[in-house]
Amino acid sequence: MTAQTLKKKQEEMHERIWQNAQDKGLIKQKPKLEPLYDGVTDIEGYLSSNLKIMWILKEGYDGFTAKGQPKGGDWSFTNSEFWDEACSSMHKVMMQITYSAQNGNIPFKKLDNIDDNPEMRDAIKKSVYLNISKMPAYSSSGDLSEEYLIWKDIILEQIKLYAPDVIIFGYTFGYMRYDLGITDNDKPIHTQSGKWCSDIYQKDNMILVDAYHPARKGGEDGSHDYVTSIINALKKIDKK
Q: 95: domain range?
């Protein structure tokens, strides 16, 4: 697939996200509530990557009403400026893992500070970022079973469209495993032990990483353990 073709299909996918939200009665005018669009920022970079990586997290958030209800939306995670300005610990962890995996599984101690290494931001732009729910939500997530049913068809089409080599699930694998063909009888091809363990499955040509959410650890030590667990897990797969 060419970059031009994928760009067009991603734009069409964004239109489908809006239409699905409209059909489900999720879009509101007062206060404004519209989808948060996802996908890949640097399409050419993604298609030329040695390892095409997709993240599937839970949901994004924007603003809140005086009563604490979600509002906002109508913008995209594929906007380069979003990743240029992203500074949360969760985003840093995602950048470190993505950069490491795309460059031969660089160990944690060699992952420089994000602000001093723009290549790490470039790496996340070359990966696909998806959310289970495409609507602005609360800053902390609960069960998303209903949201997954609303967006399932689109998410599965997004996976097919981007055809990643590796999908890293941020505590979202359980919602999708059966739709991806992973049954209770399917055993992981590798389990990375430790506090932030990661189970690795293989389906067709995709590596599926069942991991904790990248925002869950907290603190530099937790980030180290979480990043290292996934880097080490991918090292094992690389040797198979």
A: 3-238
